């Protein structure tokens, strides 16, 4: 199986709190064609905030 697949690209999730903290994950383009927004933990401000997909 090839890992460099276009259906599940590697994306970066960047904190909306302005700390510059990022998570790296994969997403399924068929199920989520637009940009992801997930609530995740930002250790720099010690709280959960929205993380948006950046390209």
Task: Please tell me about this protein's structure.
It contains no helices and 4 strands. It is mostly beta strands. It has a single domain (10-54), classed as Single Sheet (Rubrerythrin, domain 2), CATH 2.20.28. Strands 2-1-4-3 form a 4-stranded antiparallel β-sheet, with no helix packed on it. The protein starts with 9 loop residues before the first strand and ends with a strand.
Strand neighbour order, sheet with most strands: 2-1-4-3
Count of distinct strands: 4
Average pLDDT reading: 93
Q: Poorly predicted ranges (pLDDT <50, ≥5 residues)?
A: none
Largest sheet: 4 strands, antiparallel
The span between the termini is 25 Å
Q: Given the helix and strand composition, which structural class is it?
A: mainly beta
Query: Number of helical runs?
Result: 0
CATH superfamily: Ribosomal protein L33
Total count of domains = 1
What shape does the CA trace take? elongated
Q: Strand share of the residues?
A: over 45%
Order of helices and strands: EEEE
- The CATH topology is given as Rubrerythrin, domain 2
Helix coverage percent: under 10%
Radius of gyration, in angstroms, nearest whole number: 12 Å
CATH architecture: Single Sheet
């Amino acid at each position: 199986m090839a890992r460099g697949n276009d259906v599940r690209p590697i994306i970066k999730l960047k904190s909306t709190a302005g700390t510059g903290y990022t998570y790296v994950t994969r997403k399924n383009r068929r199920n989520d064609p637009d940009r992801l927004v997930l609530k995740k933990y930002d250790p720099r401000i010690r709280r959960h905030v929205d993380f948006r997909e950046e390209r």
